[in-house]
Every structure is written in C-alpha cells, then in structure tokens.
Q: What sequence folds into this?
C-alpha cells in the first residue's frame, strides 16, 4: 500500500498543480505558461477587448519574463505571443484588418509607418472572418517573424522584429486599441 501511495502522491500533486496553473478570463482558460520555439513563456497579463458595450475578444500577452512596462515588453528579445480568443458573434476580415491598420497608424508616424506598410498589407492578407470561440495566435519567432495561426491552422508569417514591435503597439502603444486591455496585459490595474 505504501508503494502505491509513493507512486500516486506525486502524480496527484502534479495533476493538481496543472489545474492551478491556469487563469480564467470571461470563461476562457489561459495557461500561466507554455513553450514557444523552445523557450518558456509566462502569461504576462490578459483582459477583454471591448468596443462600445460589446466584448470583442480575450487578449493575452505571453513573454519570456513578466513586466509591467509597455516599452520593455515591446523591446524584449526572444519569442512572444499574443492570443486572441473571440467573444463576439463574428468579426469580418475587413473589421480585423481595419483594426490592424488603425492600430499601426495610431502608434507609428512618418517613415516608420511608411516602411512597414508593405508588410502590414502582407499581414492583413493572412486573415479571414472569425466567429465566437475562434482563436488567433500571433507568435513572434525571432528567426521567422510574426506567425499567424487561426484555430490551429498556420496562415503564414511576416518577417522582422520591427514589424512585431509595431504590432505589439496596437495593444501596448501610446494609443492602444483599448486602454483597459493594455493595463490588463501589463498587470498594472
């Protein structure tokens, strides 16, 4: 009986630990950490993107190390991930791509914006309409760039750390899409 207890006890502790290692935001379970490109990422923060009175998506930011500083999060080297779990009935491709474009235009100026416009157009082509329950992953892999995955289906990638940093400004920049979501992703609220 003691041999069985010695075997089962660590398994029970391990399984219990796995259940504790998740956070829930508006019914969406988010892992506290996961591995991307061989590196352990931490859930930095998560919240809900709202527009008017509607919940649009749960947004989660995963980084190599946690931070409450937006500039540090944007400049941090290594893999990163933004997870978007759609809460709204349907978001058209046009709404998504208009959002990306507005986010870039609100947070980038002059030559920086002009230099990224061709890659932003390439990025926008990777999207299609999404529905409630769909999941978008925006993974930054230093050797590849920003990889877009929708419902576990890779859609393509856009090269450049500069592009990923500009994309992160959509959430973390001086003019974020949603200031409450920015605060939640940075755990400053």
A:
């Amino acid at each position: 009986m003691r041999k069985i207890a010695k075997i089962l006890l660590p398994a029970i502790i391990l399984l219990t630990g796995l259940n504790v290692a998740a956070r829930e935001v508006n019914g969406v379970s988010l892992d506290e950490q996961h591995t991307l490109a061989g590196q352990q990422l931490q859930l930095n923060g998560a919240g809900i993107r709202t527009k008017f009175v509607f919940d649009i998506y749960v947004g989660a930011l995963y980084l190599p190390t946690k931070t409450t500083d937006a500039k540090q999060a944007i400049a941090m080297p290594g893999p990163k991930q933004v997870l978007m779990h759609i809460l709204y009935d349907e978001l058209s491709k046009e709404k998504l791509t208009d959002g990306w474009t507005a986010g870039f235009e609100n947070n980038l100026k002059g030559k920086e914006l002009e230099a990224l416009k061709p890659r932003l157009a390439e990025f926008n082509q990777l999207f299609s309409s999404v529905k409630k329950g769909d999941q978008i992953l925006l993974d930054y892999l230093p050797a590849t760039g920003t990889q877009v995955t929708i419902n576990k289906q890779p859609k393509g990638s856009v090269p450049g750390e500069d592009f990923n940093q500009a994309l992160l400004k959509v959430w973390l920049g001086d003019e974020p899409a949603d200031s409450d979501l920015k605060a939640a992703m940075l755990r400053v609220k």
User: Anything to note?
Assistant: Confidence is low (pLDDT under 50) at residues 1-20. DSSP finds six helices and eleven strands in the chain.
